Amino acid sequence: MSARRLLAAGLLLASACSTTPAPRPDTPPTAQSAPATTPSQEDEKKPPPVADVASLALRGELTAARSGLETHLDEHPEDAAAWTNLGIVHERMGRAEQAESAYRKALELKPEQQAAWDNLTRLLCRSGRADPVETWLREQLQTTPEALPPRIALVLALLAQEKLEAASSEARRVLKADERNVRAMQLLSQVYYRERKYELAKMVLENARTLAPEEAATHNALGLVHLALETRPAALAAFQRAAELRPDFAEARSNLGALLNQAEDYSAAARELEAAVQAAPDLVAARLNLGNAYRGLGDFSRALAEYQRVLRLAPELSDTYYNLALLHLDAEPPELDTLVRLNTAISFLEQYRAHGGQDERVEDYLQDARKGIDREERRREREKRKQLRQAPAPQAPDSDRVAGDEPK
């Protein structure tokens, strides 16, 4: 790869709360474990116990996880934690309507459950309903003004709308009621981060880390702040710690993969980013960065497939067109005609500009592509002339032969 054509990270670092976490084994088994026995064929057909749902989801076995939760809820319909976990599984399967229904059922059963409030709010905000969600949450708080879980969810909805002053006010209100509330600290740090008050954000997150050192979201948010403060080694360590604490934390692994891409450790980056997209298949940043990792490895077909997935998820994202252009400029897959490849690169660069891209190197890349087309056309012309010179002279037809030319 040309050293001049650095991988464009695009959406390099996702926020700490843009996708749902993995289901947790919050619901204990309803019976004590029996001694190990050889399972019968009937036992093998049964869904897994609810305590195994988290491990199934981490392995990407979402259908089995959903089956286990649904069976458990048929027997224990009042289990609010299981309803939340079912919502998470539905959401990761792309079943937004069913996820929303499950989260609402969890809140109906246990209104103080923070995870259900957070996941429902994120889901509705991602579907473009942040404003009505804010209205709904404020209505809930008029009835129960002292309740902290819906107020924390309100901070999420305000952040989704970039209402930073209001978000800060609500987060501080939570901390006034509970000064050790780590979730409120994380969200307040997001306000400071977006306001470019990085030292304040760092201070708040370090306090949160002291209170709950095993909280992965705090480490991921610290990674963002360290990057903003240009302390890259500390950012890398923070993302690594977040991923260690929660292997399914898609944002943390995407962020770690992005930094590894920048360090040109493409194999390690690909491993992190593959784990990220397994945990969150619709996380655009992870998909884009995974395409970049494959491009760094020289794997044209896999890079192309990832960039195409990003186009389906976010067709207006200009960075994807930029990376597609560089992929077609730099790679030389034998199955792709050179002129087709270079003309495709030009087309993607033009689409990048049409979608608002302003990278100053684009004009240089366009010139490179045009020069490449000119060289290839001249090479083909030379090859054509060479073939004509080397072609055997045509023999005279039999009717033109003179007497005595007949073969003996």
Describe this structure in words.
With 408 residues, the protein is mainly α. Among the domains are: 49-110, Serine Threonine Protein Phosphatase 5, Tetratricopeptide repeat (Alpha Horseshoe); 247-298, no CATH class; 316-387. Helix content is 67%, strand content 0%. It has 20 helices and no strands. Helix 7 (130-143) runs antiparallel to helix 8 (148-160) and helix 9 (164-177) runs antiparallel to helix 10 (182-194). The model is unreliable at 10-47 (pLDDT under 50).
Major sheet attributes: none
Structural class: mainly alpha
Query: What fraction of residues sit in β-strands?
Result: under 5%
Number of helices: 20
Low-confidence runs: 10-47
Overall shape: it is elongated
Distance between the termini: 64 Å
Helix content: 55-70%
- The helix/strand order is HHHHHHHHHHHHHHHHHHHH
Tell me the radius of gyration. Answer: 29 Å
Give the overall average pLDDT: 86
List how many beta strands DSSP finds: 0
